[in-house]
What we know:
Layout: H1 15-24, H2 27-33, H3 37-53, H4 60-73, H5 79-88, H6 103-106, E1 117-123, E2 136-144, H7 148-156, H8 158-164, E3 169-180, E4 186-199, E5 202-215, E6 220-225, E7 231-242, E8 248-258, H9 264-311
Antiparallel strand pairs: 1-2, 2-8, 3-4, 4-5, 5-6, 6-7, 7-8
Amino acid sequence: MLEYRRDCPGVRKDSGSFAASAKALPAMAARRLIGTRARRRVLATAFVVTLVCSPTSLSPGHIAKRALVVGTSVGLYGRSTSKTARASSYEVKFQYDISEFTSETREHAADLGGPPAVESFCSGEGAAIGCPDGLFAAGGTLKIAVPAKEVFDWMTDPVENARIFASNVAGLNYRKFLGAGAGPGTRCYEVSKVGKWRLLGIPLSFESTVIAVEDWEKLEVRYMLKKPGAMRVMAGFWRAVQLNSRETLVLFYTEGVPNFPMPGILRRFAGKVCQDMASSLLGDLRAEAVVYESNNLLEKEKEEDLVEPLES
Length: 312
């Protein structure tokens, strides 16, 4: 067995791994790899990495094969392309018709700086109220004096997100970049969190892993459940809309279908829980907006205090 140097991260110590990978490389891909000047430069870099990390007993032919494998691992072809293709295939679709839930129809639902306006759309009653069977859905709006881009940064920054929603999120397990999305300015992530809330005063927690699609042009984040668990369906979105130079309207929507039949007596209660959860999340955002406005006011007062002595 050949020993590779320990200062080369990601290089395995079994002698057969590189040989097996090299045999799997198609000849056409190898020819394309050397076909352009840019790829030749990357290939040269791969050779340098390979020479540094190779045991002295390898022949030049083996080193060449290993360099091709290193080139593959840094995304010259195949791996990064397929990853992007997988990411672009993610499309979040909703079971409830949200076409009427827009900034135009909800602009006056909430007062600037006031509490969020939240409503329940579906309570698991199905066709009786014009909803898919078993679907629970709620949405809400919040009007705050924070730039829309700032709000979107709060949503997409994992550190800021965890801090702002600490009352509803126990922790972030991981956030993995999947690649560019289908539309311009979109990015896809796999995000795993542990949520928490109280049910009749009893603290509960749950873990969920979602695919999040960030749209940096629309300032919108859509998410959907990666794999069914306790919930068969779970999806939703956050959207920040700049209304004018001062006001931003935040829209939040969430829907879910449990993976078990919900008894009729509990449907109304479950719908209330869904609505309360939306209200709580928007309430966290409202509290952060108050802090943001307060900090801005303090900064302006400091600037005015500095200007006054200069004028006198």
